[in-house]
Amino acid sequence: MQIGIKENEQSTLLDPKLAPMLWFHYNYYMPLEESDDEDNEKSGDDDDVSDEDEFSETSDEDESTEETDDDGISEDNKIDVSGDDDDNTTDEAKERISLPFDQDRFLRKNYTRCLLSHSPTDPNCIVLVLSLHDTIIWYCHIGGTQWSMHKYHARRFHHHRFTVIKSMSLLTAVGGKFYTTFGDRIVTLEFFPYPTFDIIPIKSAHNIVYHFAEICLLESSGDLFILFFYHPMTCSQKTVEIDVHKLDITRRAWVKMDTLEDRAFVVNTIKNSGVSVNAKEVYLDGNCIYFLMRGDKGLYVHNMERGTTTALNPGADVNVAAQILMPAF
């Protein structure tokens, strides 16, 4: 499905009622030469990335900003939980679930991503914290009294350590398991109660026409999806095609999807993370992918049915790229 970019001339400002919210750096009024941009980025470890990797390189500076995911842990080691998904949920209906004390201070000393295996109110819920710079995970059970640390062996998954850490950073929870991709393999992580990895061979869904792509794994309605944002070799900041595939684990195959139906995917291609939402409930267009691109302040809306992408300008006075903030629905 090819992309035709067209500018939305009638919408220069985003409707504040729409989700997702775009968060811009607090000092974005600073002159451009003083703000964080690509000229100040450190180059990635080229030697550690093989040709078979499906994701494009991410600089050390970009990774260091990924301290927590949207399901992250607050500074006082608690998870906020809404008692109801309805918009009328009151503050009294919300509860805070306490987590074990961070005795080793790994949350403060490491750049991490936090994931939940189930809803936080589920007694089987595992809180998983991934190191984004090392082959280490920390985990605990909801209601548990301590964190456990596990160091996995990179060589089991790939001969380049950087590739392993990058792929593990894509871990996504579906049905109580965590999934990630290594191209021609799916890796699952379960707790029995200790962390157990399994490797499942699968045909890669990557379009070999393109050498570079940003990829994202996300869960939608109980299924695992993989999204490819393909770039031409001459410009890594331009997206020329978007493909969506759903995992059929019984067939060990990725099935290409032409529609998201009533769902909308919200994707941060910079951090390779995303979420699926009911479009009508959050006032978005169904069967669309909302995404950001590196070094670009715009929000892009890709219509799966038409195969076109619309660029939305969040405001003429904004001069830096945004982050996507998803409210708790």
Our count of domains comes out at 2
Strands of the widest sheet, in order across it, are 1-21-20-19-17-18
How do the SSEs run, as a string of H and E?
Answer: EEHEEHEEEEHEEEEEEEEEEEEEE
Q: Which outline best applies?
A: globular
Measured as a percent range, the helix fraction is: under 10%
State mean pLDDT (0 to 100 scale): 78
Number of strands: 22
Low-confidence blocks of residues: 1-14, 26-71, 82-93
Straight-line distance between termini? 31 Å
The major pleated sheet works out as: 6 strands, mixed
Supply Rg.
20 Å
What structural class should be given to the helix and strand makeup? mainly beta
Beta content comes to 35-45%
Number of helices: 3
Explain the overall architecture.
The protein has helices at 60-64, 106-109, 161-168; strands at residues 4-7, 21-24, 78-81, 95-98, 112-116, 126-131, 136-141, 148-151, 172-174, 177-181, 185-191, 195-201, 212-220, 223-231, 241-248, 253-256, 263-268, 273-278, 288-292, 299-303, 308-312, 322-325. It has 329 residues and is mainly beta. The chain has 2 domains: 1-37 and 211-329, no CATH class; 54-201, no CATH class. The strands form 6 sheets. The protein has a 6-stranded mixed beta sheet, with no helix packed on it. Strands 5-6-7-8 form a 4-stranded antiparallel beta sheet, with no helix packed on it. Strands 9-10-11-12 form a 4-stranded antiparallel beta sheet, with no helix packed on it. A hairpin with a 4-residue loop joins β20 (299-303) and β21 (308-312). The two termini are 31 Å apart. Residues 1-14, 26-71 and 82-93 have low confidence and may be disordered.
